[in-house]
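worker-03 picked up job from queue 'complexes'. Input manifest follows; three sequence lines, order preserved.
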Amino acid sequence: MSQPLLSVRDLHVTYRSEAGPVPAVRGVSFDLAPSETFGLAGESGCGKSTIAGALLKVLPPGTDVTGEVLLDGEDVLQMTPGRLRAVRWTEMSIVFQGALHALNPVQRVGNQIAEAIEVHRTAPDAGARVAELLEVVGLPARRASDYPHQLSGGQRQRILIALALACNPRILIADEPTTALDVMVQAQVLELLERLQRELALSMIFITHDLSTLSYVCRRTAVMYAGRIVEEGLADEVFARPKHPYTAALAAAFPLIGDHAHRMKPSGLGGDPPDPRDIPSGCPFHPRCPIALAECTSAEIELWPTGEGRNAACVRVLDEARR
Amino acid sequence: MSFRFVTRKVLAALATLAFVICFNFFLFRVVEGDPVANLFRGKNLTIEQRQELRREFGLDGSKGEQFVRYLEQTARLNLGRSYSTNRPVRSDIWERAWPTIALVGVSSLLSAVFGVLIGIVAAWHRRSKVDYGWTGFTMATYSMPDFWLGMLLLVTFAVTLGWFPVGGITDTSSDATGIAKLFDQAHHMFLPALTLTLAYLGEYALVMRSSLLDTMREDYLTLARAKGLRDVAVRNHHAVPNALLPVVTLVAINFGFVLSGAIAVEAIYSWPGLGLLSYQALRGPDLPMLQGLFLVFSAAVIFFNLVAELLYGYLDPRVRTQ
Amino acid sequence: MAASPRSIAWQRRRRALAQAWAQYRQHLPGMIGLVVLVAIVAMALLAPVISNPDELHVVNTVDNPRWATPSEFPLLGTDNYGRSVWAQFVWGARISLLVGLAATLVAVVIGSLVGIGAGFYRGVGSAILQRLTEWFLVIPFLPLAIVLASILGPSVENLIIVIGITSWPSTARLVRAQVLTLKERAYVERSRALGASNRHLMGRHIFPNVSPIILANLTLTVPIAILSETTLSFLGLGDPTRASWGKMLEESFKAGALSRGAWWYYLPPGLGIMAVVLAFTLIGTALEEILDPRLREQRR
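worker-03 finished. Artifact:
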């Protein structure tokens, strides 16, 4: 693609804990073009939410972040504190998961949105802008004077979306935006996000473990496992014709409604994702992989190309290419 | 804050006060069968003298009659007559209340302010030398008997260095009035106030620290940082107001308790307040005085607990908008 | 022969205990507290060996120098009656520790019973217990203790009773809150559905899960009890025949040790109290962290 809007190169994030360093992200790279929707899929603990925090550099102090996060060519990780604070929210913003404590419980939601506007001075009249934003996300303007506990889960999620749009960012990072919601509300929020992305020509990174929602919103996607990307490509392609056994397992784990055969034979994957402090040698997926080969326990795994814009981190892909 | 909320809390407080009033009676009359015998242990009294004393102290008649008389008197704020001074208990308490209120008021304010500040600094720099240093300091002051700390301060600053007077509330030899008198009183109040402040700030620091540490884990702080706020703004506008809630109610509740907790400190400094009054009443024992003081102290705690509940209801929007 | 369920349960408990101890050993402040406490207890127990109890009584010390400094009269000089301060310190430790521990036991036993009763049962009885707890929480400790002590008379036993019955409400409140959360847990409901009696539920499910909280609360209540004993003794309500750290402070103050500069009389008891209180507080904090896995997470 021509100059990508966001380019993440070899991102490594290691948390510091009393029990030692915890490598949550181990060499992730991807590009994001203007107005593109990109999905990051994986189970809990694979490192995808950590990436959201890393892009805006809001991880806990002491966390080790290396690599490059190039926003229009400028590395976010090397920015001065002043430049970083200016870039936050105005270029990239995060839509957090709308659980109760994503918002300050003792402050009215309207004020929390207005705070972002006032800090960056992106609108002359913060109050008017807040009302405008609420309208965009489908909430009545009087909701601005409510406290977070007075709103339903769906309303809180809309407020978080409105907040994320407050300073007209070019990139929206949605971190599990529908996970805590009922299915009906999920559909409404997804619809809203999809519409906003279209109308405002936003670039969006959509982080989730829910593959069904991801395919609805995203054009391209990457699947993560144990801190690394194991497969990437067009979202429909990746889930319909997975090249990595983990992607296949993930896609198969979602039951198809109406498919009786599928219902009678649940196909979840045994075992758990590895502890980041104790990642298996070779391919980290080999202990759980149904088609593992002997070399998988020791081979150096990389993301190998397996088609136009398609990559997968599995040695079987190499065999295919050789044939 | 709804009217129902306030009325409910006030009624609960009144019910507790009623309990305390009854309990006060039984405590003195029923726990020890014959207070006169106990009071005048070791003194030889004739039967007539005993009966006379009983009548004087309202100890004649059945327990039921005594109880009713007690309730009537309490309703009229008649707390009896002191055994030692023979003045109405009410007057002594009224006179001595102000020095205690002043002392405890100033100390509570200072210990709350400094305790909160220390707690904020310790939590923000958690696990650093700053944190360990302040936490160690507050644990140390918290472990000391408050009056022992008073003794140390007295020895250092009054006896050895002579910067402050050794006791009392005013210089008895001078006859200064107005502002000069106020300064003199403040001068006398310095050491006792310092003692109480140091003794109580540990609790506030520890509570504020842990409250802030809990708050710092919350997502909305990450959100505030992501919005582009400076760290200081995140702390002061988001973290601290949330963390402050439990501390505010603690301050209000403590005020009620510290009023009666300053007895030993007042004894050390001869501060003429309710504490010293209690200490002197112990010598007798001056039972009516002790009974009156007990009631006053308990009423103060009940009152400030109510204040704390109403304050919390007002400050926490989650409670306010129910 | 297969192991009985009971022996399996005991094995598990022993292992859990060993694990808890291993965790405790890693907690530096907790270990410091433990060492200090053991040292002080040892000192108190060895009192007859390391000091001369005769030096405690005025009748025996008529020939001793008055207000002697530690260099003149080891180990801690003498007071205004010529009594050995060191003897008072070492024997006083016994009373302070004894009253602190015994009073705490009384308070925690009463508080736990009330708390479990109020939390577990419904209905009038539980409501009464709860009201009682709340009312007693309101009554300020010192005035109540003073009144009780002056009515009952000054003795070690009375002091234990007084401090014990004024301190149970906070334990009761804590225990009741814990019992309430436990009651809602699935395994209790399941047990009940299987027809378990209340006694069985309380003994097998509630009590073992409340005991860690009670234990942590106990170690944090002891410092409060010790400070209370100190204050009450200082105010003249302690046992006049027995030495205690609070009494040392009372007598040193009354005898004018402050103006005399007789630091050896008033400094050691205060430092001793500080050391014991700090030790128990550190131990209690370590226990809390070990027993509540949530708190342990936060240490990361």
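worker-03 released lock.
The first helix of chain A runs from residue 48 to 55.
Chain A touches chain B at residues 53, 56, 58, 85-90, 93-94, 96-97, 99, 101-107, 115-116, 119-120, 147, 149-150, 163 (CB under 8 Å).
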